[in-house]
Write a structure and sequence with these properties.
Blueprint: H1 11-34, H2 40-51, H3 88-106, H4 122-146
Helix pairs in contact: 3-4
């Protein structure tokens, strides 16, 4: 004759169901007893709130008696915004190199890039463009080798 060695037979199943039902009943009882507005917990909370101090603004100091605080934020002058402070040859070489490098990796030579420098003198603008072309060629070559 076969003997059933399964742990879930007869009384074990009923015991398991009874434990689950008791746990659910306990959860529901705790949930609904805490939510009642007239419960003991609600009375203590109201009493505790009444004992807390209330913040009131200090209006005893007349306006103008407080010391003036100097402005701590410095704002850049409008002329410096967007201006490249690097020398024209260095800026052109660096900008051209990186544009050429990324074009070399992508395999797209002579993609249109903005080569209009924000320098005031004509000689600086020409120096930037010449340095850009040199940097672009070197960057494109190295970009092709890297890909």
């Amino acid at each position: 004759m076969k003997k059933n060695n399964s742990p879930l037979h007869g009384s074990n199943v009923w015991l398991f169901i009874l434990i689950i039902a008791a746990a659910l009943a306990l959860i529901l009882w705790l949930k609904y007893s805490a939510a009642k507005p007239g419960g003991e917990a609600a009375d203590n909370t109201d009493a505790d709130r009444a004992a807390l101090p209330v913040a009131t603004p200090d209006t005893s100091v007349a306006p103008g008696t407080l010391p003036a605080v100097a402005e701590s934020i410095t704002i850049a002058p409008a002329d410096d915004i967007g201006r490249d402070n690097r020398p024209a040859d260095e800026a052109g070489e660096e900008d051209g190199y990186w544009d050429g490098y990324y074009d070399g990796i992508a395999g797209q030579e002579n993609k249109p890039h903005d080569v209009t420098p924000a320098y005031s003198s004509r000689s600086q603008r020409e120096t930037y463009r010449a340095s850009y072309a040199t940097g672009y060629a070197r960057g494109y070559e190295e970009g092709q080798q890297a890909s």
